[in-house]
Amino acid sequence: MSPANELAELWVADNLNVEAIEAVDITAWRTYQLVYFLDRVLQKSPLPEGNVERLSKMYPKISKAQNAELRLRWCQIILKNNLEAEYSKVKEFLHSQGKQKYTLPLYRAMWGGSESAQALAMETFSATAPQLHVNVRNYVKKILGLEVE
């Protein structure tokens, strides 16, 4: 886990050490290592201006992942850094599944974020509510301050 920790530290720096970042090869990393790396980045978010965009471009394996664990964390990073240009990824993820494990943390992050993140939460919930299990739907309603069935 040390390489994941060290790489996360490099990404949270005000002045990115691109050489050091490029020296770390994540192509062979297992999913649990990528998850750990993203958890560290999330803990240290918001990152300095532009770092998340650069991270996204440098690691399409992460930013375009189809793995739900990676997608959840990437969406949380997008929200914590208020990266509105990437909000579509949050929306797509919530439209693609309705598991409580992934849904609730994202709605909490949206509701605790900017006005635009809160608007995204309401818009996404309106569109996805019918596909959610009634319990998940009620939990999301509580997060959003809506009346529970």
Keywords:
10 helices; about 150 residues; ARM-type_fold; hydrolase; aminopeptidase; Serine Threonine Protein Phosphatase 5, Tetratricopeptide repeat; single chain
Notes on the protein architecture:
The chain is an all-alpha fold and 149 residues long. The chain has two domains: 1-81, Serine Threonine Protein Phosphatase 5, Tetratricopeptide repeat (Alpha Horseshoe), CATH 1.25.40; 83-148, no CATH class. It is 67% helix and 0% strand. The chain has helices spanning 2-11, 18-22, 31-43, 51-58, 60-63, 68-80, 87-96, 100-111, 115-128, 134-144. The chain is elongated, with a radius of gyration of 16 Å. The model has no long low-confidence stretch (mean pLDDT 96). Its cofactor is Zn(2+). Keywords: Aminopeptidase, Hydrolase, Metal-binding, Metalloprotease, Protease, Zinc. This is AMPB Aminopeptidase.
Topology of helices and strands:
Blueprint: H1 2-11, H2 18-22, H3 31-43, H4 51-58, H5 60-63, H6 68-80, H7 87-96, H8 100-111, H9 115-128, H10 134-144
Helicity range: 55-70%
Classify the secondary structure makeup into a structural class: mainly alpha
- Write the H/E string, N to C: HHHHHHHHHH
- Major sheet: size, sense and barrel closure? none
On the 0 to 100 scale, the average pLDDT is 96
Superfamily (CATH H level) name of the largest domain: Peptidase M1, leukotriene A4 hydrolase/aminopeptidase C-terminal domain
In the predicted model, the low-confidence regions spanning at least 5 consecutive residues are: none
Radius of gyration: 16 Å
CATH fold name of the largest domain: Serine Threonine Protein Phosphatase 5, Tetratricopeptide repeat
Q: What is the count of distinct domains?
A: 2
Q: Which second-level CATH architecture of the largest domain applies?
A: Alpha Horseshoe
In terms of DSSP E residues, the strand content is: under 5%
> Which CATH first-tier class of the largest domain would you pick?
Mainly Alpha
